[in-house]
Structures are given as C-alpha cells and as structure tokens.
Amino acid sequence: MITLKVNGQDHQVDVDPATPLLWVLRDTIGLTGTKYGCGIAACGACTVHMDGQPTRSCSVTVGDVGPASITTIEAVESKAAKAVQTAWQKLDVVQCGYCQSGQIMAATALLESNPKPTQEDIEAAMTNICRCATYQRIRTAVDEAARIMEG
C-alpha cells in the first residue's frame, strides 16, 4: 500500500510503485480532470501540482511521490487559480478543452510564483501543447489573470 496526499486527503492505494501517478489519479482515485495526452511528459495535459510545482503526472511514478502534496484541477483554488479561471472564461480560451486542465495548472503555478510575469516569463512557463492552437488566447488569458490578481 502506498499513501498519497491528494487534494488535502490521504489516499491508500494498492498499486505497483512503478505505476505513473496519472493513472492512479484517474483510475484508482477517480479524479479524471487530469488528462492523458502523450505519456512522455511532452504535452502537459497531465499537469498537476506537487508541493506547488507544476508536474507532469504521466512521468512520475507513485513510488517516487513520497510525502509530496498533490493538487489536481479538481481542487486548485488559490487566488491565482481563481484569477486564471476567470480570465479563461472572460476571454473564451477553450476550444476543444482537452488540454485546458493542464494549461490552467501551469498558468496557476506561474502566477503563484510570479504574479507579474513578462511575456517572456509566460512563454517560458506555458509549454503545454494545445491541439487547437489557442496559444495566443492562452497567453492573453495568463496576462489578464495577472491583472485580475492585482485588483
């Protein structure tokens, strides 16, 4: 048995320690907001926060998580997260929506660590792939979220 702290709750999971965190979140715990995209940590659809850091859950095994606190899209609710969600809705960022939980998690982590990012900061942090190519709307929404956080 492995204990994972996910969204503020301890979960006892009986899985192989080599199982990717993504699959334990989705299939064992039932949190399906985190998406599978590529399986090689390239696309970012599976982004969660581990101790506040954006992490691609397809490339982390549950055996390597240890005592880290994991936050998924279902529970992200910081001031930055609320600003990002507001900006996403205001600017109608979503097209197909598949990558959006990972995009929101990446944007939230950026704004929590850097509430006034430059365009270069946004470019560097937002490396998730969007199949619909809504990159300009995503970048604009991150900038808008920063403005929302300023008040």
Describe this entry's structure for a reader:
This protein is an alpha+beta fold. Helices cover 41% and strands 14% of the residues. It contains six helices and five strands. It has helices at residues 21-29, 62-65, 79-90, 100-113, 119-125, 135-150; strands at 2-6, 9-13, 47-50, 53-56, 69-71. A five-stranded mixed beta sheet has the order 2-1-5-3-4, with helices on both faces. A hairpin with a 2-residue loop joins β3 (47-50) and β4.
Helix content: 40-55%
Low-confidence stretches: none
**Average pLDDT across residues?**
96
What is the H/E order?
EEHEEHEHHHH
Q: Label the structural class.
A: alpha+beta
Give, in spatial order, the strands making up the sheet with the most strands.
2-1-5-3-4
Strand content: 5-15%
- Radius of gyration based on Cα positions: 15 Å
Question: End-to-end span in angstroms?
Answer: 45 Å
Q: What about the largest sheet?
A: 5 strands, mixed
Number of helices in the DSSP assignment: 6
Overall geometry comes to globular
The total strand number stands at: 5
Summarize the structure.
This protein is an alpha+beta fold.
Task: Outline the secondary-structure elements.
Layout: E1 2-6, E2 9-13, H1 21-29, E3 47-50, E4 53-56, H2 62-65, E5 69-71, H3 79-90, H4 100-113, H5 119-125, H6 135-150
Parallel strand pairs: 1-5
Antiparallel strand pairs: 1-2, 3-4, 3-5
